[in-house]
Amino acid sequence: MEIVHCEGCGVPLQSEDKRKAGFLPKSAWDNEQVICQRCFRLKHYNEVQDVEYTDDDYLRMIHQISDTNSLVVKIVDIFDFNGSFISGLQRLTGNNPIILIGNKVDLLPKSTNRNKLIHWMKKTASDYGLKVQDVFLISAAKGNGFEEVEQAIEEMRQEKDVYVVGCTNVGKSTFINQLINRSSGVTDAITTSYFPGTTLGFIQIPLDDKSSLFDTPGVVNRSQMVHYVTDKDLKLITPKKEIKPKVYQLQDKQTLFFGGFARFDFEKGMKQSFVCYFSNQLMIHRTKLEQADAFYEKHVGELLQPPSKETLEKLPALTKQTVKIGHEKTDIVIPGLGWITVPEGGVTITIHVPKGIQISIRSALI
C-alpha cells in the first residue's frame, strides 16, 4: 500500500490510532487537501494538539534543532518542574539561546514570592545543566504574562525561527494557541502555514516573511504522575483554580495521606504546623503512624481516593524516602501533586510516593 504523507507536517498518514502522529479518519482520505487531524485542528480552529512519540523519536527530532540558528522556548509546569523538565536539552539544542517559561502561575497562592520562584527555576535549570537566558511566569490558559513573553521572544529571536519544546501536559499547546490568537499576523497566516515535507512532527507557523514558529510534539517523561492515572483522576489532582493551602498541626508519629497517591510520615521533631499546597479537590486524611500501613491497605481506592480502582491497576507501589529538614523553612515537593511546607524545620520526615516519582527539596517559596 502506498504511503501518503500529510501535506501539513509531512508525517505518514494513518487511521489506526488517534494518539499517534498522522492520524486521519478514514472518511477524510478522499478530501482534496489531505492533512492529518492535528494539522486540520490547527488550520481551522487554531488548536495545537499533542501527539505521542517514542522517546527516541522525540530525541531525534529535537536534536535537529542543534543544526539551526534559532531561539528555543522551553515550557515547564510550575507544579511539576522536575517531572516536566527535559534532561539533556542543552545538548539537543546546541548553542541556541533558551528561554524558560513556567506555566500555570495563576494557580499559585497570591502569597507566592514570584522573584524567589524565578530564582529557584534558574538555579534548578542550571543544576540540570541548562543555561537559560531568562525565566518568565505565565498562565497559558488565561493569557497572564504574555505581553512580557511576546516582547522577549521578539527581541531575542532577532528574526530567527522559534522552536517551542516541552513535555506532555505542561500546557505547550495552550501556550502556542495563545500566541496564535494574540497575533493577528500569525492568525492570518495559519491557512498558509502548511508546507509539504516539513520535518517529522513539527508544525510550522509563519511569524513573518523570513521566519517561523515551530511546534514540537510533547515528550513523554516516564517520571510524570500523569502517565499512571486515568483522565478522571488527573482532573482531581491537577489544580484548576488558585490553590487554598491547608494547615495541619502534627505531633511526631502522625501521618498524612494525600488521597492514595502519597503519604507523609512525621517521624521525629517538635509539634508544629505543616502547610499543604495541593489541588483543592484532593482529599487529605490524618492518622497515627503506627496505623498507617493498615489504614492504606483497607481504604486505598475508597476513602483514600483518588486513585480510582482503574488507576490502582497501573499505579506503581509506594516506595519511601526519609529526609531530615534543617532549621529553615522548606518545601517538600511531590511531582505532579503539590508540596508540603515545613515552616520551622528540625524534623525527620518519610515520604511515600509511587515508584519512579522523585521528590525534591527546596527553600520555601511562600
TrEMBL record:
Domain of life: Bacteria
Molecular-function annotations in GO: GTP binding
PROSITE patterns assigned to the protein according to its UniProt record, in alphabetical order: G_CP (PS51721)
Signal sequence bounds: none
CP-type G domain mapped to chain residues: 56-222
PANTHER family recorded: GENETIC INTERACTOR OF PROHIBITINS 3, MITOCHONDRIAL
Name of the molecule in the record: CP-type G domain-containing protein
